[in-house]
């Protein structure tokens, strides 16, 4: 199925999805199929989860491998992230923070992460098991966003983080309230992180 055929197929079936009053999450999956067979495309819808004013993270003991060639791709191979998230929620947190076997911070189970360390906003470099999220890319390219340095972030640096955000295309930009029960002191920063929220809001209003 070529790209134009796939788009037509998705549009034909979109009208049959439930109507949640404009606040729904639509998920599209595409499978190429085996050689000589037709690929598959299907869609699902569910109510959009209520927005989080801030989130708490727990560093997960489950470690994605930097050597896994599929770890940085959005595929059906999502088991480790799902399990990490469920364990974090069961322990009373909102999400899990993933770290690889080399002690490098990657992302949460469902979102990219931005941390303010010292006077500099940082986000883990792509590569290894970091997903190239759409909102992450938007904020990095936005002229309204304070300069963000992409670099490896060690787990030891988490204690120096004074502020942080998670970003994904469903929830947008969500402040990090705490990491492993250590509260992030948002009042101590000189550059207000609302710049990140404003950048995303401006994009959504276009």
Describe the protein.
There is one protein chain. With about 210 residues, the chain is α/β, with parallel strands linked by helices. About 20% of the residues lie in helices and about 30% in strands. It has helices at about 5-15, 80-90, 135-140, 195-205; strands at about 25-30, 40-45, 55-60, 95-100, 105-110, 110-115, 120-125, 150, 160-170, 170-180, 180-185. The protein is globular and about 55 Å long. Residues about 10-15 and about 190 have low confidence and may be disordered.
Report the biggest beta sheet as strand number plus sense, adding barrel if it closes: 9 strands, mixed
Cα-based radius of gyration, to the nearest Å: 18 Å
The portion of residues forming beta strands comes to: 25-35%
- Overall mean confidence score, pLDDT: 75
Q: Which structural class is indicated by helix and strand composition?
A: alpha/beta
Low-confidence stretches: 10-14, 188-192
For the record, give the distance between the C-alpha atoms at the N and C termini, rounded to a whole number.
Answer: 32 Å
Helix and strand run: HEEEHEEEEHEEEEH
- Assign an overall shape: globular
Please give the number of β-strands: 11
The percent range for helix content is: 10-25%
Q: Number of DSSP helices?
A: 4
